[in-house]
Inverse folding.
C-alpha cells in the first residue's frame, strides 16, 4: 500500500510538471498552532512529465504516491548499500593490517565519494524513483 498526498499543478511544460503540496505537521492539537510557523508549509517540486500518458492543466488536483519498491530502492541507495560497503571495506582493510586512524580516513573518504557519486547520478535516480501521479476526480 502506498502513501498518497494531494497536490496542485502550478506549471506544465513539455517535459516536466511542477506541483505544489501542503505539508501538514503533527501539531493539529496544539493550542498555539495559530502563532506557530511550523504548522503548514507549501512545497514545490518538479517531476518528469510525458504528455502522451495523461494531460494535466494548471490548477488540476492530483494525487502523488510512491509504491513500496520505490521506497525500498531509495532506502537501499541512501543507507543500506553504503553501510554494507563500509563494512566490507573495513573488513578488507583490517586484513591488510592498516592502522585504525588511516582506516578511518579511508572509510570517510569512501563515504564522501559515494554520496558525491549519488549526487552526480541524481537525475537518473530521480527518474527511477519518480512518484506516480493521478488526477483526482
Amino acid at each position: 500500500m502506498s502513501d498518497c498526498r494531494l497536490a496542485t499543478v502550478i506549471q506544465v511544460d513539455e517535459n516536466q510538471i511542477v506541483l505544489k503540496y501542503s505539508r501538514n505537521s503533527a501539531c493539529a492539537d496544539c493550542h498555539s498552532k495559530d502563532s506557530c510557523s511550523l504548522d503548514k508549509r507549501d512545497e514545490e517540486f518538479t517531476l518528469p512529465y510525458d504528455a502522451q500518458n495523461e494531460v494535466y492543466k494548471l490548477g488540476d488536483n492530483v494525487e502523488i504516491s510512491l509504491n513500496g519498491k520505490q521506497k525500498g530502492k531509495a532506502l537501499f541507495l541512501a543507507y543500506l548499500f553504503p553501510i554494507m560497503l563500509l563494512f566490507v571495506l573495513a573488513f578488507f582493510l583490517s586484513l591488510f593490517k592498516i592502522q585504525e586512524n588511516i582506516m578511518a580516513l579511508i572509510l570517510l573518504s569512501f563515504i564522501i565519494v559515494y554520496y558525491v557519486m549519488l549526487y552526480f547520478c541524481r537525475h537518473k535516480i530521480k527518474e527511477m524513483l519518480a512518484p506516480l501521479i493521478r488526477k483526482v476526480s
Q: What stands out?
A: The chain has a mean pLDDT of 84. Residues 69-126 form one domain. Helices lie at 68-95, 100-120, 122-128. The two ends are 20 Å apart (CA to CA).
